[in-house]
Amino acid sequence: MARSTIVRDLNSQLLLDIWALLFWSMIGMNDSGKGKVALVTGVTGQDGAYLSEFLLAKGYTVHGIKRRSSSFNTARIEHLYQDPHETNQRFILHYGDMTDSTNVIRIVQQVQPDEVYNLAAQSHVQVSFETAEYTANADALGPLRLLEAIRLLGLTEKTRFYQASTSELFGMVRTVPQNEDTPFYPRSPYGVAKLYAYWIVVNYREAYGMHASNGILFNHESPLRGETFVTRKITRGVAAIHHGYQQKLYLGNLDAKRDWGHAREYVRGMWQMLQQDQPDDYVLATGETTRVRDFVEQAFRNITVELDWIGHGISEKGVCKRTGRTFVEVDARYFRPTEVDLLVGDASKARNRFGWTHHTKWQELCDEMVQEDLILVSKEHR
Ligand code: NAP
Ligand code: GDD
User: Fold this and answer.
1) Residue 15 has pLDDT above 80, yes or no
2) Cis peptide, bond prior to residue 177, ω within 30 of zero
3) Are 275 and 156 in contact (CB under 8 A)?
4) Cβ(123) – ligand 2 distance below 6 Å
5) What torsion do the CA atoms of 357, 359, 364, 368 make, to the nearest 10 degrees?
6) What's the pLDDT at 34?
7) Which of 211, 239, 281, 190 is nearest to 366 (CA)?
8) How far is the CA of 119 from the centre of ligand 1 (A)?
9) Strands, sheet with 249-251, edge to edge from the N-terminal-most edge strand
10) Distance (Å, rounded) from C-alpha 335 to C-alpha 279?
11) pLDDT 10s digits, 191-204
């Protein structure tokens, strides 16, 4: 290995150790969750990482379920990692998969959680059209397996349950904005699987008196967002174009509208739902809707490019106003067989019940993501 590579690796390790030290010393600062045990599925995902940080900072012991993978899938929670040989370990990982009932039951039995946050899912809408059966298995039957584990193990009185429900349930929207009373009309195998999950949570709450709640969350993003979701694809693309590693960005439907908030703020809402005396279902959203093309324009402003749109449909292009260079093209492979055109949520129930609100505007979110990706992309190519 080249000397420069070794030095760089040592530096990154040192930075990681310092960050971990700071994190673990800071989390002693708030111990309102001290003594409580949480089980987080999907711990390696965007929300899993933010939620684990949040719960650890509250004093919880956090058990996370991660899938076995042939390559590393723990990058987002690296800074939380604790050596299993340490005493008083508060962040513990278990191998598991939502499609494996025996595994799910064994982990719930071992952990005896006070709170379960079910975040694990095949969460990509477009991918769900290609992997519909698997998506149903993980996203619909997965939550059923967890609820059954809690029930069979006699934990219904002790364990509170959070289900990661989604604004995709509203699909072809029946009202604008959407709230807890808006009828559902899912538009993808993902949405349909999540519909089953939503109702099985309601059913177990009513049938067995379980403290089980649905968080109907609208899109939330961050620098930790998966790279194939549109916001992150855009911000990474802009960073790669700026550094000269990519020529253009190829996108699908530029006119879809989404209600984009910051993931860090949404995990607080998940926790708040489980702190209520009664279980219930809540929308979390910003109340503002934005077109994909507006997000693209904002992202390019970070590298001082103002875009003009020319042409229509599949031939539409985003070009630099100053130089005429084409930066964005439409690629039909990113169109979906059935699309969700417009999402905008009304989170007044969560605001009135427990004071949840968002703080970050979508423009700030976009700028933060581009700035982080500018650093990341340049590091990757060093
Ligand atoms: P994400 O980044 O895609 O993370 C999904 C997590 O689930 C990952 O840890 C993934 O593991 C894990 N997972 C996938 N299939 C699994 C399986 N069969 N068994 C066990 N684990 C599995 O998603 P996210 O953005 O954090 O979203 C968290 C949850 O909220 C998801 O259920 C999503 O559907 C829902 N949701 C998200 C949004 C949003 O805007 N982000 C909005 C509403 C609802 P790997 O790391 O190994 O892939
Ligand atoms: N992914 C992607 N890639 N989407 C694109 C692209 C592209 O190149 N071009 C345009 N889009 C459009 C999609 O058609 C969609 O209308 C919109 O951008 C947002 O797509 P995603 O970022 O993939 O998110 P999503 O809204 O489909 O789903 C996300 O939010 C849901 C909550 O509403 C996921 O996080 C789901 O798990 C979540 O439930």
Assistant:
1) no
2) yes
3) no
4) yes
5) -90
6) 87
7) 239
8) 6
9) 249-251, 326-330, 317-320, 307-310
10) 38
11) 999 999 999 999 99
User: Exposure pattern of 304-325 as b/e (b: 16+ CB <10 Å)?
Assistant: ebebeeeeeeeebebbeeeeee
Q: What contacts 338, CB < 8 A, 6 or more positions away?
A: 187, 188
Mean pLDDT of 348-353: 98
* Tokens 């539409």, residue located: 316
pLDDT band, residue 10 (cuts 50/70/90)? very low
Q: Which of 339, 343, 357 is nearest to 259 (CA)?
A: 343
pLDDT tens-digit readout, 274-295: 999 999 999 999 999 999 999 9
| Pairing of the two strands 261-262 and 249-251 | unpaired
pLDDT, tens digit, 9 for 90 and up, residues 360-378 = 999 999 999 999 999 999 9
Tokens of 264: 């860090």
**Pocket lining for ligand 1, CB < 6 angstroms:** 41-42, 44-48, 65, 67, 69, 73, 97-99, 119-123, 138, 164, 166, 217, 219-220, 226
Whether the predicted model's global pTM rises above the 0.90 cut: yes
Proximal ligand: closest to the CA of 47: 1
Name which of 120, 137, 142 is nearest 65 in CA terms.
120
Please list the active-site residues: 166, 168, 190
Q: Are 44 and 76 in contact (CB under 8 A)?
A: yes
Q: What is the pLDDT of residues 132-143, one digit of tens each?
A: 999 999 999 999
For 63, 65, 141, 367, the CA distances from 149, given in Å and listed in that order, are 16, 15, 12, 42
Which of 17-21, 201-205, 218-222 has the least mean pLDDT?
A: 17-21
Q: What is the dihedral of CA 181, 187, 191, 192, to 10 degrees?
A: 90
Asked whether the beta carbons of 36 and 90 are under 8 A apart, the reply is no
Q: What distance in angstroms lies between residue 245's CA and the mean position of ligand 1's atoms?
A: 29
Q: What are phi and psi of 13, to 5 degrees?
A: -60, -40
